[in-house]
Amino acid sequence: MNRAKCDYFGVWLRGNTAAIYTARAGLKPLILMGHEPGGQLSITSEVENFPGFPEGIQGPELVENMKLQAERFGAEFQWGTVSEADLSERPFKVKVEEEWVQTRTLIIATGASARWLGLPNEQKLIGRGVSSCATCDGAFYKEKKIMVVAAGTRRWKKQTS
User: Fold this and answer.
1) 65-93: per-residue pLDDT in tens?
2) Catalytic residue among 6, 7, 86, 136
3) Which helix (H) or strand (E) holds 61?
């Protein structure tokens, strides 16, 4: 069974920020990248609301920059999906693929994944009028007629007010 001081599964904005800080502290974090590395950022065209980029930055470029920064301080990235965890005692045990890994600290930063409708041409229209994040892309549609498909009235009310 492998041992790490600090493990994460799921990453990017929150997870990579934690990876940078823990790597700088010498904890040698292992970051597990699951089915959607980079999360919604990896499919975002222009990110205009992230500090430090006055002209904006492409989502995939920001994802890669954050990974490189964490690696610079000793973070290790590994492909893998967590299927099971035993958090009843320390060290924690996490099953990655078919291997159990022990860790003193576990940070879970799974982020969000878009749930697409599966409509024809939907994927081709991402960034060209079809969006998966009203908070991220809402400003592009200011003063325009829009249609929101959401998983509940809370989101509908929030994005149309």
Assistant:
1) 999 999 999 999 988 888 899 999 999 99
2) 136
3) helix 59-72
Q: Which of 6, 7, 86, 133 is catalytic?
A: 133
Give the span between the Cα atoms of 116 and 90, in whole angstroms.
Answer: 39
Is 6 an annotated catalytic residue? no
Could you give the CA distance from residue 56 to residue 47 in angstroms, rounded to a whole number?
5
What's the rounded Cα separation, in Å, for the pair 54 and 69? 19
The Cβ of residue 111 has, within 10 Å, a number of other Cβ atoms equal to 16
Full-model pTM: 0.71
Whether omega for the bond prior to residue 91 falls within 30 degrees of 0, making it cis, is yes
Q: Give the active site residue among 6, 7, 86, 137.
A: 137
Beta strands in the chain (DSSP E): 2-9, 30-33, 46-47, 57-58, 76-79, 82-86, 92-96, 99-108
Single-letter amino acid code for the residue at 2 = N
> Between the CA atoms of 20, 52, 65 and 63, what dihedral angle is there, to the nearest 10 degrees?
90
Neighbours of 15 (CB within 10 A): 24
137 is catalytic: yes
User: How far apart, in whole angstroms, are the C-alpha atoms of residue 68 and residue 20?
Assistant: 10
